[in-house]
Amino acid sequence: MNANIYRHEFRTRLKSVVIWSLALTFLVAFFFSMFPVFADQAALMNEFLARYPQELRAAFGMDNMDLSTVLGFYSFIFMFAQLCLAIQASNYGFGLVSIEESELTADFLLSKPVSRAQVLTSKLLAALTSLTITNLVVWVVSFTAITLFGEQREYETGTLILLLFSIVIFQLFFLSVGLVISLLVKRVRSVTPYALGLGFGMYVLSAFSGVFGEVALELVTPFKHLAAPYIVEHGAYDTPLVLINVAVTLAALAVSYWLYTRRDIPAVS
Amino acid sequence: MSIIEVTDLTKYYGKARGIVGISFNVEEGEIFGFIGPNGAGKSTTIRLLLSLIHPTNGSAKVFGKDVVAHGPEIRRDIGYLPSEVYYYEGMKVIDLLKYSASFYNCDCTQRMHELSETMELELNRRVSDLSYGNKKKVGIVQGLLHSPKLLFLDEPTAGLDPLMQRKFFDLIRAENARGVTVFFSSHILGEVQRLCTRVGIIREGKIVEISNIRTLQQNNYKKVRVTAEGLTPGSFDLPGVTNVQVEDGMVNFFFKGDINTVLQKISAIQVADVTIEEPTLEEIFMHYYE
After folding, report:
1. What is the ipTM of this complex?
2. Closest of A164, A189, A170, A78 to residue A128, by C-alpha
3. Residues with Cβ within 8 Å of residue B162, at least 6 apart in sequence
């Protein structure tokens, strides 16, 4: 770990962190402010939802969701928050070392007296710090929104904490998978399409796996590994799936270190 | 002691050739010129020595340590000026230089200001606002500010105006006088001749020749053109004269050997104009392929 690289990396991402945090604040606060309306009309709402085909509800993960409870409603919003967090984390993952290469500053950094492993560790920690800030913002805004608009209804604080704690696992998955893909492809010219692809791709996979019932697809996507409705319903994680998630993250990180320390930095061409 | 020892170094990018079986040594305190046309493998060699890329085969040592195993340690005493300079666009020059300095255990502030003053670099501008030449200056200051023991200069003069080039050469000479070893890559023979003591010539990934700059010059052709009245192809019938062409009272020929013999011959006639030129690099390479 090199403090200079860490600081530099963190600063470069600061603006992006602020924007993502603001977007998530708006998303959670705005949608949750509608909770009182939904809660009052709960019976009507659930009836309304029941008219939709089972497959469609499953696609949005709403098949076993009760919008009249605090956590039921919150878990609905949480899925959209997850989508944002996925794109943000993949964005940082894909860009972690590839931006340095596409903007050709890698020569500058790597001709300094630091090892590749040090560079990668510093960059990873800086990105993780940035993600954690966004993460904490989501914690704060979630608790605040529930206090403000939850109409003092009862809910399991433990389950909410479990839900919010899943964010860091979720972010690490996209960060490290984005990173490993960026090292496996020859050159990442633009980060955004990759990040959107990975984020939305995984989301769509989870939607499909909802439509088609029990399929192997849910083994792949973190949107299933850490599905909010499951956590709310059971008050616990789906342990095997979470273990798969963590295993993929660790494998991606290990492979990333292996690849990066052996990587030939492309020259200007 | 050899500062750089390269043994049978080979680099392939997939199937594309980088360099093939290169071996050479650079001694402490010398300015070693590395010349060759574009794509010959000059940058590849430097990037291998900085372990920005990894060798397919062979090995290289800098300061007596293997570059792959001891990269970070070696790079502590290396300054590198890449051929194309790219820096973090959003940063100010001063912040970039401070960032660069922060990697070394030195208080480089004073030296940073001295160097910037010499190179007339404005510290408060943003990197994105700089012209190519100014970015190059940033590169020079950045490469020198931690007082490295070994300098890699990869086509350093491109983009610098002649005045700056001269200041830059003075700077390099001053560094060299303090005992800094310089590895100078270029495709411009003239600047290599001005600065270097020894040169390696690389072509198509292979070292064609390593020699003292003096011997190289002696062994090389000069292009001579004499304009005078009444010249015939036989006017310069000397050993070492080849490729004689005559047109409109002008004689062109290549000469190899002691230039004084030609000068004596020329001084004997009433000439209107004389030019004696360095052969272009291309012509030197032709020579090595004859």
Report:
1. 0.83
2. A170
3. none
- Taking the Cβ of residue B223 and every Cβ of chain A, the question of whether any pair is shorter than 8 Å is answered with no
Please indicate if any CB of chain B lies within 8 Å of the CB of A265.
yes
- In 3D space, the residue among B41, B43, B111, B100 whose CA is nearest the CA of residue B75 turns out to be B100
pLDDT at B290 over 60: no
Q: Cα B208 vs. chain centroid, distance in angstroms?
A: 16
The 10 Å Cβ neighbour count of residue B164 is 19
Rounded distance, CA A237 to CA B280, Å? 73
Three-state DSSP string of B137-165? HHHHHHHHCCCCCEEEEECCCCCCCHHHH
With tokens 């939850």, the residue in question is A150
Number of H helices, E strands in chain A: 12, 0
Count of beta carbons in the 10 Å neighbourhood of residue A135: 21
Mind listing the pLDDT tens digit for each residue in A73-114? Answer: 888 889 899 999 999 999 999 999 998 888 888 889 999 999
Query: Would strands B181-186 and B150-154 be described as parallel, antiparallel, or unpaired?
Result: parallel
Give CA–CA dist B51/B11, Å, rounded: 12
Query: Rounded to whole angstroms, what are the CA distances from B196 to B31, B156, B185?
Result: 5, 14, 10
Q: Which helix (H) or strand (E) holds A73?
A: helix A70-102
Chain B residues with CB under 8 Å of A107 CB are 52, 80, 82, 86
Lookup result for tokens 């860009």:
A95
Tokens matching residue A64: 């076993």
Q: Using CB atoms, pick whichever of B80, B84, B102 lies closest to residue A111.
A: B80
- The number of CA neighbours under 13 Å toward the Cβ of A116 is 22
Quickly count: other Cβ atoms within 10 Å of residue A235's Cβ: 12
The reply to whether residue A264 touches residue B90, judged by beta carbons under 8 angstroms, is no
A168-210 pLDDT, tens per residue?
Answer: 999 999 999 999 999 998 888 888 999 999 999 998 888 777 6
Contacts of A23 (CB under 8 A, 6+ apart): A84
What A35-40 contacts at long range (C-beta under 8 Å, 24+ apart), as own/partner pairs, is A35/A70, A35/A73, A35/A149, A35/A150, A35/A151, A36/A149, A36/A151, A38/A67, A38/A68, A38/A73, A39/A68, A39/A69, A39/A73, A39/A151, A39/A153
Say if pTM beats, i.e. exceeds, 0.95: no
Residue of A112, A123, A269 to mutate for B, most B C-beta atoms under 10 A: A112
Answer whether A74's CB lies under 8 Å from A156's CB: no
What residues in B contact A118, CB-CB < 8 Å?
72
Q: How far is B229 from chain A (nearest CA, A)?
A: 51
Specify the pairing of strand B271-277 against strand B221-228.
Answer: antiparallel
